User: Which sequence fits this backbone?
């Protein structure tokens, strides 16, 4: 009973089922984003009759999205500077003590998450 082999067709069917299970919520989310709220609450699983960008305009008007974007970019640049500085200092230290070994491996190759260093 345990001698059954996995056939390529069986694997493909399994992967197709997984694909459908992953795509259906994404498509529902995408269709819901372009529907007016009235249509969404009346027919949550129906196909939209007319596409509307009002939901996106409402979000942009009610929240300072440009400010959020600028703050994210500033935070990204700060973290990037810290990561590059710490990796270059560690690499310099490794090169001074183990010059030959450091040529093959830099500290950034090991990619241990950098956030514990920042704490």
Assistant:
């Amino acid at each position: 009973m345990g001698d059954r082999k996995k056939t390529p067709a069986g694997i493909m069917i399994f992967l197709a089922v997984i694909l459908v299970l992953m795509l259906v919520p994404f498509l529902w989310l995408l269709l819901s984003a372009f529907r007016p709220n009235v249509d969404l609450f009346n027919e949550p699983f129906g196909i939209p009759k007319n596409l509307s960008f009002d939901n996106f305009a409402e979000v942009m008007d009610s929240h300072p999205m440009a400010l959020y974007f600028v703050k994210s970019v500033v935070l990204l640049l700060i973290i990037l500077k810290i990561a590059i500085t710490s990796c270059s200092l560690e690499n310099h230290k490794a090169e001074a003590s183990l010059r030959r070994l450091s040529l093959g491996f830099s500290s950034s190759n090991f990619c241990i998450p950098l956030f514990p260093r920042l704490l």
Q: What stands out?
A: The chain has two domains: 1-63, 64-119.
